[in-house]
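Bumping with the actual sequence this time:
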Amino acid sequence: MRLLLKLSVNNSNKISLNYNYALSSAIYSLLKFGSPEFSSFLHQIGYKSDNKTYKLFTFTLKFESTQLTNNYLSFNSPKAYLYISSPMIDDFIKNFVIGTFEQKKIELYSDYIKTVFNIDEAELIPPPNFNENMYFKMISPMVLSTYKIIDGDNSQYFFRYDDDINEINRVFNQNLLNKYQAINNREYVGSGIKLSWDIDFAIQSLKKGKRLSKKVLINKDINNPIDVIGIFCPFNVSGDSKLTKLGYECGFGEKNSMGFGMVAA
């Protein structure tokens, strides 16, 4: 299920460019109003599969009009839009909605700046019709990674658009299978899905000098920030619509609860 929150900033004329972690923390704070127990479980434990932890939600914050100044986004308009999505309707969506009605604001603290948004309106976004062949545009970058020996060290490598598509699909599918098992408490049985990039979009973007990847700084610890690289390119998926729906609802790829992997049909 996916929600849209219409927001208006009320206390500042700017926000840190690296707001992902701050906004994720604010979402957990809203969940506490619906259920402190669930918020604590999700934040500290989460859903497990294959020795990995999944939060099973994703989000994207869009602004009506901003301009980049150093490491800050300055607001030309006070309006903003928070999209948030999860397949966990009874646990996540219900408690998040309770939090929005109770709190009526979202407070972000990042890079020593406090930014407060009023929650003016909330609405349900109808889902698309899921079938075996679908086309998605990225609303936020999709993170897919593996571990490689780089300069003698076993290091995390973030996939780019032009990496081996078979390796990308292997990691892409395994991530979805793990999420399926985390939700359903059983292994997935089926053929999975296959991703293919929108080649025409990629060619035109590259001709214009636009990047198909985006680096985002996760500022959980201001003294030790983490760089995350995500792919930003539309793609087609073919195969099991159950997995496609799952990816749409909780985000494709990794680090969804930090605001990655949200798509629009």
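The tokens above came from a reply further down the thread. The chain is about 30% helix and 35% strand.
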